[in-house]
Design brief:
This protein has 159 residues and is mainly beta. It has helices spanning 61-66, 149-156, and strands spanning 5-11, 18-21, 25-29, 34-35, 45-51, 54-60, 85-90, 102-107, 111-116, 120-121, 133-139, 142-147. It has one domain: OB fold (Dihydrolipoamide Acetyltransferase, E2P), CATH 2.40.50.
Length: 159
């Protein structure tokens, strides 16, 4: 791989897919069993998953932007999300107060993409909360959002 390219994952999300460098992702779990929360303050707090003898909080990035509040039980929004449930285990977020693994819930298939410096910056998609978005980029006529990982670490602290 050339030095001027960055290997990334495309992770399905609404309203646009996320783009994360592979260094941010510890593992992509296609058959993860999510332990639902009995009670939750927000719909984006989806539950916990057991990974390598650790109990990790699971968040829906799409629901974080919707601002919806519900019971937060895992699976509540499965009908509106398309595809198979996918849990993306994030490495501990650098410079965050909470130095721990965490996980994002997506629906669909993770894909690989090598990104070079020719990406174009885009406008924030309608309905997205800029507090959780580092940047919006266009690659080959596709728009992706890059999550603000330190802000996600704060959101994970609600668990």
């Amino acid at each position: 791989m050339s030095q001027d390219k960055l290997d990334c994952y495309i992770l399905p999300s609404l309203p646009v897919p996320m783009l994360l460098p592979v260094e941010c992702v510890a593992q992509v779990l296609e058959q993860a069993e999510i332990e639902a929360l009995s009670e939750s303050r927000a719909a984006w707090m989806r539950g916990h998953v057991n990974w390598r003898n650790q109990r990790l909080p699971v968040m829906s990035f799409a629901d974080l932007h919707s601002g919806a509040h519900s019971s937060g039980v895992a699976g509540d929004n499965k009908s509106k999300d398309k595809g198979q449930a996918l849990v993306v285990v994030l490495n501990p977020i650098p410079n965050a107060a909470r130095k721990a693994y965490s996980a994002l819930l997506c629906f669909g298939e993770a894909q690989s993409l090598a990104v070079d410096a020719s990406v174009d910056m885009s406008d924030l998609p309608k309905g997205m909360d800029k507090r959780y978005v580092e940047a919006t980029v266009s690659v080959d006529e596709n728009t992706f959002v890059i999550p603000k990982l330190d802000a996600l670490a704060v959101a994970f602290s609600y668990f």
